[in-house]
Amino acid sequence: MLLVPCPNCGPRNATDMNYRGEAHSRPDPDAATKEEWRTYLYLRDNPSGWLRENWYCSSGCRRHFQLERHTLTGELRNPPLPGRKTAGA
Amino acid sequence: MGKSSKLARYSAAGLFWRGIRKQSWPRVWRQPAMKSTYDVVIIGGGVHGLATAFYLASNHGINDVAVVDKAYLGSGGSGRNTAIVRSNYLTPEGVAFYDRSLDLYNSMSADLNINVMFSERGHLTLAHTDSALRTMNWRAEVNKLQDINSSLIAPEEIKKLAPSLDISTDTRYPILGALYHPPGGTIRHDAVVWGYARAADSHGVDLHQQTEVLDILCEGGEGPEGKGAGGRVIGVRTNQGDIHAPVVVNCTAGWASQLSNMAGVRLPITTHPLQAAVTEPTKTFLPTVVVSGSLHVYVSQTDRGELVFGASVDPVATYDQRGTLQFTEELAGHVLELMPGLSKMRLMRQWAGLCDMTPDYSPVMGPTQVDGYFVDVGWGTYGFKAGPVSGEQMAASVANNNLPELIAPFALSRFTEGVLVGEKGAAAVGH
Amino acid sequence: MIMSNRLPESSSEVVDRSKPIRFDWNGKKMKGFEGDTIASAILANGDHILSRSLKYHRPRGVLTHDFWDPNLMVQVGDEPNVRAGHRRLEAGMKISAQNVWPSLKFDAKAANGIAGRFLTAGFYYKTFMKPARLWPVYEKVLARFAPGGEVDLNTPHGYHDKRYAHPDVVVAGAGPAGLAAAIAAAQCGASVLLVEHEYEVGGHLLWGTDDDRAAAATLLAQAAAAGVEILTNSTVTGRYEDNWLGIAQRSHPIAVERLIKARAKVLVVAAGLIERPYVFQGNDLPGVMTSGAVSRLINMYGVKPGKCAVVLAANESGDQAVEDLKRADVEVARVVDARGSTTVNCAKGSRTRIKSVEVSDGSSIDCDLLVTAVGWTAPTSLLNMSGDRPVYDAAAARFFPNSPPDNVLATGGITGDGSRDELIAHGRATGELAAGRANAARHRIQAATASAAAVAGDEPEYPSDNRAPLTRADHPELHRSSTHGLVDYSEDISSKDLFGAAAEGFDSVELLKRFTTATMGPSQGKLETVNTVAILAEARAETIEQVGTTVWRPPYAPISLGALGGRVFEPVRVSSIHPWHEANGYTPILAGQWVRPEHYGDPHAEVRNTRTNVGITDVTPLGKLDLQGPDVPKLLSQLYTNKWMKLPVGGVRYGIMCAEDGVVLDDGVTARLGEDHYLMTTTSSGAGGVWNWVENWLQTEHPEWQVHVTPLTTGLTSINIAGPNSRKLLSRLVDCIDLGPGAFEYMQVRTGTIAEVDNCIVWRIGFTGELSYEIHVPSGHGLHVWNALLEQGEDLGVAPFGLEAQRIMRLEKGHFIVGQDTDGLSKAPTTGMISLLKLDKDDWAGKTEVAWALEDDYPVIVAVQPTDPKIVPEEACQILRDGTREIVGRITSSRHSPTLERSVCLAQVSREFAVAGTTLTVLLANGERINARVMEHHAHFDPEGERLRG
């Protein structure tokens, strides 16, 4: 089972976490065309390789944070540093 | 059905005579040299790709077709699924589609001259809550309108069909009822792959294993290298060389979105593993397929006596097919909830396959914004069940360059139009 | 009872002759000793056939005498598929043979053997295509041949707990290398878990020389002294991501079998080697055994495996078997040394035992035992699971690890050959390396954890691998002789089958495996894989490297569902009032994780009483979020479709939440308790999801907003007091809240004291359509307040009502339920609450999609009444276009209304049919079509809302 490094709680079993999927940014809802909005809703890069994604420490500190994970090997890189605010981005 | 004159026909008599004469069987399919040009290239040598090739040749007379697979035939989802077939879906469009598939499965042994061991053993979807009962009833009512044999039954009747189930009411997840679908059952998944491969081959389709597509070649599109909307496909680049073809059909799972990007067509897909496991064989005791959506488990017993288990897709998107311990733990816990007598059975093997999940748990089929590039992807956890009908419909789509009515609800454009298919409600664990 | 094949007692044996054990084998009473395996005890009693093969029902005896022996699967009581070459004999065991009918000695299905010529691998694909109706018949016959034991459906669940372990180092395998690795790692300060598949530690030293056994004893003592935790009869079944390990602990004082989940910083794989059988005609005759089986039977169990032996030896293990046989007084008729050029062509036998061996030099030798020592399979499963792809070395005739990840180290026979001392030295070096790497990993984890204590000292260097590798001894490549024999014993697959399948085109390892089912049986390729690959290579005229191999999947050894499932641990949630419900005749209903009262006997009476007098109901499962901070109104405006910036203190408002695709996510009321203090309620099933949703918006899109969220779902016990007498009842319990109609109006909130409990929240809302108050009290006092309401309201006719009455009343009132009357595609307009969809408001979740949806066609929730008031359509009944089968909607909620004395429904219909007064055609479950009318309002009862505003 993947160890997911919550910046606050440290490495925790993935089952302690809530996976929120690929990180993507929300278009301006007032300006977005249907195509842009539905791209935001439905289309994902889904790479076989490095993926920037959102996690939620749902059984721990309730922090949302981002990770870069390799979807083929399970490796992580640039894990969030403890104590640094990672919201947004 | 087209004639299959080149086939060494399978039959009991054939077995007998070859046994007597100690004769071996000829190759099940040829190993053709790869040509530089085909009318149609199909990417993916699973049930979908092979069925599409077969129906292109047999129904439409298009046999200058290559099927390429980066590994061996049936190495993806076709060989990793739990081989359950059924047609008791929730939406009218889903029911019509899968019912056609079930028809094709029913006659497949005779049509393809190979015993695919279709076992019409009945399919039970258990309900543990009143809201689940309501959904079962919804399915039953929709099914009834399309003459699908599917009805809600009470615990006592369930017990008769599957005596190993615990129907007492003091359990954590009491069995309140079930949707019973007698025409559902299991099939030998590999035989389906081989059957289509052998039949397609006999119609002149070239099967190329160990042939990986590295790029899809396009011209005239708005994107780089002529890819993307407005363009047209001109072939594929493989690790065995380039193939020129005016039509390329993406019949893959797991890598569908990556391949599609090569044509400049983005897909609404995320790839998740779906895990399965089998126990050691025992004498058979479970005559039907049992599914519990609330407990995320489905189970059937093979003729060899192994229990075959599946669950819902893993929550974390990944292309890793190694499987998890967590899956086996939850699976075993839930199976014992349903059938407490099985605690001494042993799990023998677990594996995973890749599922391309779409936002509405329904596939993406037909032509795309790139002329000549067709997709038959996004099957989530339902790909195997839909194999025959997908092949039939995709062949028609390719042959006529249009979107047949039966698969019209599954067009890629529905995501930009915002008209999703309503199958998701019943799909959490849909086997 | 004579144990006719028992050897004289020796110092090497593990059986305890002072402790005889009685057991039952196929109804025969037998005697063995403590320490015997089931198979050794049966053999000692003179029986040598232990099973019948799958397809041809050929008699089978001991082959490898270990866990993987495919011929030694037996039934023990209610336990199927017990490994008789591994499992210790226990007093009173009732053991029987599997896969025999009617008996082991006379097996009627053995006739299949005659038909073998026609039953080639995959034969069933080639027949029974037509007529289709015959296949089910044949299928039933096939199922009778299912090879396993019998499941007793009354098997008790048994006690199975689980353990979590966090060792620095886990060592899989306690042979000399594994023991040495564990000792060295522990001596370096690592916490070490040593896991041994067998009942004793020592590996092959146990059936070796006296010196070997002494060395094993010394290592065991050192391990104990170093503080190594040793688990025997336990297997590391799987290595998963980040060294998450499953360990099956089969011997445990309390648990029947236990799953240990260990997060090892380093895994050392010291799994040893598995001896490969040889493929030749007759290789499955009883009396053909591997050298390991023979040495174990003689040295550990004191059992004589035969009277006259031929030994095919390609390595030292064969030489040792020769010595062991001689010591056991077994005549060794011939040693065929395969290191030269001779080998065994085939074996011939009677129906029940080998009789002679034909050697490649043309000689034929009579015997009743053929011992083969032809090489090894490296059980690289755990390395495979770590991502390694082992490579074949033709000179050593086996696979070796390639490049496992840094936190997985291999040692011992799996990596090379060597003397006992060399193996131990390699193990020690591996243990030291493992401890060093574990220490570095520990530092890294601490440094990456904000909440962990500061790390002492500098980060230690991550040690590199400087171990001197073990050498690889040359070994002849021996897979198949000149004849065809069985490759997969559990599946009855011969080398001829494999050749045939390859010729048919199933010529890659995976296709071959799938077509023939070779390696798919209970030993999962431990004995068969390499021979299968070798024979495919032969068929393709290629090398083993070119052919490649299959991937070994978890588990390494089978593990019981009981151990995997553990104790069934599915908690339920109950409110603080639950004891009262239980004591007062409630009927429970499961709602998500909650157990709630469905009713207390008669839900219709509960409705009538509430509408006439006053009823109280426990609504604790309502999701409740305490929101504090100056930016709460912004948050609410973002999440709900309607406006929130001007909600006054003391006000309550209803809202609908949408997901970003416009689909209804949840609904509920939110109250403003103070200047910066709000209480949000959600649906019961949506509580967790909404909390996540709120946090998501606050942390990712608007981290600048100052809002603090505290979930209070179980912190507050919630009671709804509904009915004409509710004001009178509540006024008897509150002190400083003025409940007067002008002072406390519909959709307002007050805080104060109820039944002397401080910090209670009261709001006036009306889900039931009655004058009603919902009170939220600190949950420690929930039961007290509930009782106070019942006591104080006796003269007012107070009575509890359950979920069913609540549902009836809300349906009478026409309130939809998210997830029942809406579904996964219902966008906000479907609710019919168009006035709540504020498109003139700035950004809110789902706004864009809702705006587009309003321009399109969409289904609408309407109230529906069947023309015949007695007919209550089933929920989910379909609504059809009249005279057709076209679905235009469905009944989403349906009940008999005791208030109106007629059936009342909510339905989703396409807009065309949503016009008040439209007559709908409803298809009942019994197939009958009935008419129903679309009503003007959602509310069937009191549409003007006079009662709830009263």
Produce the secondary structure layout.
The complex is a heterotrimer of chains A (89), B (431) and C (950).
Chain A: E1 3-6, E2 10-13, E3 18-22, H1 34-42, E4 50-56, E5 64-70, E6 76-77
Antiparallel strand pairs in A: 1-2, 3-4, 4-5, 5-6
Chain B: H1 12-20, E1 40-43, H2 47-60, E2 65-68, E3 84-85, H3 92-106, H4 108-112, E4 123-127, H5 130-145, E5 151-153, H6 155-161, E6 177-181, E7 185-186, H7 189-202, E8 206-208, E9 213-219, E10 232-238, E11 241-244, E12 247-250, H8 256-261, E13 270-279, E14 289-292, E15 297-301, E16 307-310, H9 325-338, E17 346-357, E18 364-367, E19 373-377, H10 383-400, H11 414-417
Helix pairs in contact in B: 2-7, 2-10, 3-10
Chain C: E1 16-25, E2 28-34, H1 38-44, E3 51-52, E4 59-60, E5 73-76, E6 79-83, E7 94-97, H2 134-144, E8 162-165, E9 169-172, H3 176-187, E10 192-195, H4 210-225, E11 229-231, E12 234-240, E13 244-249, E14 258-263, E15 266-269, E16 274-275, E17 288-290, H5 291-299, E18 308-313, H6 316-327, E19 331-337, E20 344-349, E21 354-359, E22 364-366, E23 369-373, E24 376-377, H7 381-385, E25 391-393, E26 398-400, E27 408-410, H8 420-447, E28 486-488, E29 493-494, H9 495-504, H10 509-516, H11 529-540, H12 544-547, E30 559-560, H13 561-565, H14 578-583, E31 587-591, E32 594-599, H15 603-612, E33 614-618, E34 623-628, H16 632-639, E35 652-658, E36 664-674, E37 677-682, H17 687-701, E38 708-711, E39 716-722, H18 726-731, E40 749-754, E41 757-764, E42 772-778, H19 782-792, E43 798-800, H20 803-813, H21 847-855, E44 860-866, E45 878-880, E46 887-897, E47 902-909, E48 919-923, E49 929-934, H22 946-949
Parallel strand pairs in C: 1-7, 8-14, 9-10, 9-15, 10-11, 15-27, 17-23, 18-19, 18-23, 33-43
Antiparallel strand pairs in C: 1-2, 3-4, 5-6, 5-7, 12-13, 13-14, 16-24, 20-21, 21-22, 25-26, 28-29, 31-32, 33-39, 34-37, 34-38, 35-36, 36-37, 39-42, 40-41, 41-42, 44-47, 44-49, 45-46, 45-48, 46-47, 48-49
Helix pairs in contact in C: 3-4, 3-8, 5-6, 9-11, 15-20
